[in-house]
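User: Last request for today: this protein with zinc ion, please.
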Amino acid sequence: MIRRIAVILCLLGSIALEAQQPAPAAAPRASVPRAIRRDVPLTNSIRRAYDAGTRDTTGRPGPNYWQLQTDYTIAARLDSATQTITGTESIELHNNSPEALTEIVLRLDHNIFRGLVPRGLSYPAENTDGMVVSKIAVNGDTVDLAASPPAGGGGRGGRGAAPRRLAASGLDQTVARISLATPIAAKATATVQIAWRTKLPGGPDGRGHRMTQRIDDTLFQPTQWFPRIAKYDDLRGWDTSLYLGPAEFYNNFGRFDVKIDVPGGWIVSGTGVLQNPQEVLTAKARERLTHVLDSNDVITIVGEDESGPGLSTAPGDRLVWHFKADVVNDFAWATAKNYVWRATRATIPGKGPVPIHMVYVPSHANLYTNAGPITRHALEFYSKLWAPYPFPQLTLQDGPSSGMEYPMVINSNQGAADHETGHQWWPMVVGNNETWYGWMDEGFNQYMNILSGADSRGTAPVLDGLGQSYGRTSGDENEATMMWAANNAGSMYGFQTYSKTPLMLSMLGGIVGDAEVQRAMSEYTKAWSFKHPSPWDYINFMDKALGRDLQWFWYYWLWTTESVDGAIAGVSTAGAKTTVTVRQDGQMPSPVVLKVELAAGGPAVKPMANARMIDDKTAIVTWPVDVWFLGSRTFQAPLDFGGRAITKITLDPGCRFPDRDPSDNVWPKPAPSETPAPRQGFGGRGTCGE
Ligand SMILES: [Zn+2]
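Assistant: Here's the final one, the structure of the complex with zinc ion:
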């Protein structure tokens, strides 16, 4: 009893004493135990998919996985004088879902040119009439476009007892609906016919937004240029996300059969394979094309001095170019009065050579000097990294848009050739939902560009430092989490969609090894080729492929903007044993990784079970993230090297874990004159690296 009273008095005394101290410099929360979340949120959409067996926790397509297929047959005519494309299309919509479709949602991206629709932070300079739809028929029944939209909207039969009727609404918006009188039954196919026209917008400078689609009336770069069937999936049904400009696409896979009618002498490039070279090319060009796959030389198919009907193309006032593509999620093309056409090859492992085509105006020749070799390196490197390039060709198209990707087509010169080629894997092969989850597209691409860039220079990629650098961004109130739909990411759209993913994958490499990250991503690419993974599929797949429960990792990176904020809070030695007090002030946990440098002489170095010697007096000692799961903010890391003196300890030596202030990661604290300058930007090695 007496002892207990004494203890209570001591505690009261210390509390009273503390109350007189000035407030601590550290954030108040640092003294509060933290709860580590060890799973990821499940939204209603992914719960539905798990329940239906379309997706599951293996991260592979579930036993009941399905996706719509849309096969397009398009005939389009370009009138260069009015800068207008007039088209008709017939779409076979294969409803592979287990439900009847009571409506069809259309994407009319060109309505963004109307200027009267919602737009994001970037949009084209010229306003037009947008996508003007003049006819819609479903299974032969024509929609009365003059009729008012159905009551109640949404095409689900409206309110009350109003009979279901065939009708369209929203044709002046980027997303429109056709409500059906007769639903399209599960597993049935419907034919949708649409007639339309659209003027391709230029701009005062003919440059800028990727949707600027022409230079005067001599070069056209049509993209998102025809009415498309929106994506319908097992997660949310119809994708009704508006096209706002910045966030990109989520499209169905299917076949394309496209005929493009242009003035004679104008070269046309596009998605797919040209079906009628004998009708549109000269004999000379056809002969030159037979040599493209012979070597890595860049050869001329149509030269600058070959211009006009009979020289650049077959003779004739108008020519119809016919392209076909199997299993792609879009179709883009370009044409110009005076394109130069050059070509080379890339050799795809396990497949052989495929052609790389380049079409550009003569005045841009200097932007294409290195485009062939850069694109070849990208196709070959990414084929080895993820999965072999599956398409029969790749074309670089010159024009006002010089940084945009479509299947088999990149609107790019050499400047963005590596990045835009990377997009052939996402979203052209792995059809992720870019509109919502830009990080699964642009973010993965940024990561692979780091690897490709290093490979092309013959150096090792620098991934050290990237993960740690996020600590300097974490806490910015403008940052949306990565799971927040990219359309709503605001002023930090670029960071959320592009820059943050390589930082996340740098930390992942710091936990499992960079080679393991890349192996798992390669398996993920193959498992989801020509399918549509969700973030949960990616998370589950990676956990399985890496053989680890990393849900805590995905939770903090994808659903929060938290960081680790690690520090060495103290070091004490008693006999042969040294205890390092490691502290984490952030909400994100991480494994504890210490680089321990030992004195040159002394007792023999005793190995530690969780240590890896990188030379005879330097060890990397690791404890798993689990040491934080009980909630303490400090971890006592025991070191025992058999009595050999320790000269220096560095926390997170690879700089992989987000840290606001890495200067407190070193023991003993360097004298002020020895303090290294703060690390600059992303990727700076600084003092990082084992
Ligand atoms: Zn991109």
